[in-house]
Design a protein that fits this description.
alpha/beta; Rossmann fold; 4-stranded parallel sheet; 4-stranded antiparallel sheet; 8 helices; 10 strands; elongated; AB_hydrolase_fold
């Protein structure tokens, strides 16, 4: 490991922790023999730090958060940046607030209400992904790291996120990709399949032998990820991108063993 290019990346509470290891006024941070070269914090809790009178950055920071985040509000992070830039004018503190985005905007599930959240007044919070914000965040992070580390990333954003890591299966002819009624799964699975259809590739939708479903969207390993999520339950790919790859004959269905990794 090249300790001169150490990067800390954290989400939510992990993002809050990342802000903590970045505070150069903290004696515990000062005592560390190794410190991060760059820090990326996604939707962190910023309130504890913007209330501190002496918080300062020890390294460049990229902070990304959703405008509609009702768990870790963006306004606290905006206030933190304003505070830091007033007292530490040479600080590298890049911040992006994504519109129409909630806590966990880089996730793959649609926005939904999370119950029993202790840190909000209502006890609830909205959590879920925004595909546009997720794509923008990926690019911003890759660009920021490349600039701050002084070297191009070995694996560029285009190489990592464009297309699939595995060979794309041929359409099986089982059904048209938009025919939700043909999906051999539960009504709940069909509702999730409609969500899948509205997303951009790379994406994959898997169906289990019990009528369940798993999907992965926006990742180069979408096929592998959707099948891995099935765990010990037997499952197969139903659709990949804009094509149905499911077969009525179980022997022809695509499981993990039939994925073929692309050669680079």
């Amino acid at each position: 490991m090249d300790t001169s290019r150490l990067v800390v990346i954290g989400r939510s509470h992990g993002g809050q922790t990342a802000l903590g290891v970045l505070d150069r006024t903290d004696k515990a941070v000062q005592a560390q023999p190794l410190r991060p070269k760059v820090v990326v914090a996604l939707y962190p809790g910023c309130s504890i730090y913007h209330r501190m009178w002496n918080y300062e950055l020890d390294a460049p920071l990229l902070l990304m958060i959703g405008e509609s985040d009702d768990w870790t509000p963006a306004r606290s992070c905006v206030q933190l940046r304003e505070k830091v830039m007033r007292s530490q004018k040479d600080a590298v503190f890049e911040m992006h607030v994504f519109p129409d985005s909630h806590h966990g905007f880089d996730g793959l599930t649609p926005p939904h209400t999370k119950m029993n959240v202790a840190s909000t007044r209502s006890g609830t919070a909205t959590v879920g992904g925004n595909p546009v914000a997720r794509e923008q965040a990926h690019r911003l992070m890759f660009d920021f790291l490349s600039v701050q580390l002084g070297v191009p990333l070995r694996l560029s954003h285009e190489e990592r996120y464009a297309g699939h890591q595995f060979e794309l299966p041929q359409a099986s002819g089982f059904a048209a990709v938009g025919d939700t009624a043909a999906l051999p799964a539960s009504e709940k699975a069909r509702a999730r399949y409609e969500y899948y259809l509205a997303q951009q590739p790379p994406k994959a939708f898997a169906v289990t032998e019990r009528g369940g479903w798993y999907l992965s969207i926006g990742a180069a390993d979408a096929m592998q990820a959707s099948l891995t999520a099935c765990g010990k339950v037997k499952c197969w790919l139903y659709a990949v991108d804009d094509r149905v790859v499911w077969h009525a004959d179980p022997d022809k269905r695509i499981d993990m063993a039939k994925l073929v990794r692309k050669e680079r």
